[in-house]
Amino acid sequence: MQLKISWRRAPSIFTDPPIPLATEQRRRGLESARQAARAAQQSLTLTKKKQYRRYRRGAGNAYLDWPRWKAAYLREYNRRITLHPAQAHHYIGSSMGGP
Questions:
Q1: Contact of 42 with 2, CB cutoff 8 Å
Q2: Nearest CA to 30 among 2, 80, 6, 64?
Q3: Which sign, positive or negative, has the C-alpha torsion 39, 32, 78, 88?
Q4: Record's superkingdom (predicted)?
Q5: Is the distance from CB of 33 to CB of 76 less than 8 angstroms?
Q6: Which of 5, 27, 77, 98 has the most CB atoms in a 10 Å sphere around its CB?
Q7: Cα angle vertex 7, ends 4, 11, to 5°?
Q8: pLDDT in 10s for each residue of the chain, 99 residues
Q9: Rounded Cα distance, 74 and 32, in Å
Q10: How many CB atoms are located within 10 Å of the residue 16 CB?
């Protein structure tokens, strides 16, 4: 008797298809992604996939799919803050000396 081993992966939440959402459900999903991005900026261990898993656990059957959630997350995570010119020298080349 031969034993067959299947290495097929379990279904992933990252490949779940998009589903139709009400405006409020979509807004909550996008806000969750933005909040997760802000939290990740303060942490070394909160990855976008870990944050999406948390979101999906609480979202139930009305979820924002991974590509849309990830896009909102990355937009927030990579958003640039404009500094006043008087503040910029503290961040750009301040260790290089100068006037």
A1: no
A2: 64
A3: negative
A4: Bacteria
A5: yes
A6: 77
A7: 130
A8: 677 776 777 779 999 999 999 999 999 999 999 999 999 998 999 999 999 999 999 999 999 999 999 999 999 999 865 656 666 555 555 444 444
A9: 12
A10: 12
Give CA–CA dist 9/26, Å, rounded.
29
Tokens of 65: 């799919």
Alpha-carbon distance 76 to 40, whole Å?
A: 11
Yes or no: say if 18 and 69 are a contact pair by the CB < 8 Å rule. Answer: no
- The end-to-end CA distance of the chain, in Å, is 82
Q: What is the 3-state secondary structure (H, E, C) of 22-87?
A: CHHHHHHHHHHHHHHHHHHCCCCCCCHHHHHHHHHHHHCCCCCCHHHHHHHHHHHHCCCCCCCHHH
